[in-house]
């Protein structure tokens, strides 16, 4: 769920599961925990994003099995504002 829901702006909550050693199984608790970051990758600061997150996002949107050759993440402010997230694939 977290793999495909990180770009959704609403938090997705699931019941927390803990391992019960005595019963040797997962036990669902009454506590709720968020499973997504509730913000799109391109809206977050570059310093908050790891290279692995960039590569995972690329693989998710491009259905590519390999990491990109290069990527850039820029935010431009002025008369008009935009955020750029550009990936260059390894294969053409």
Could you explain the architecture of this structure?
Helix content is 17%, strand content 35%. The protein contains two helices and four strands, in the order H-E-E-H-E-E. The chain has helices at 2-5, 51-62, and strands spanning 13-20, 25-34, 70-76, 82-88. The chain has a two-stranded antiparallel ribbon. Strands 3-4 form a two-stranded antiparallel ribbon. Strand 3 (70-76) and strand 4 form a beta hairpin.
Query: Please, what is the average pLDDT?
Result: 87
Radius of gyration: 18 Å
Mind describing the biggest β-sheet?
2 strands, antiparallel
Structural class: alpha+beta
Brief sketch in words of this structure:
The chain is α+β, with helices and mostly antiparallel strands and 92 residues long. It has 2 helices and 4 strands; from the N terminus they run αββαββ. The chain has helices spanning 2-5, 51-62; strands spanning 13-20, 25-34, 70-76, 82-88.
Furnish the topology, listing elements before pairings.
Blueprint lengths: L1 H4 L7 E8 L4 E10 L16 H12 L7 E7 L5 E7 L4
Antiparallel strand pairs: 1-2, 3-4
Features:
alpha+beta; two-stranded antiparallel sheet; 92 residues; two-stranded antiparallel ribbon; elongated
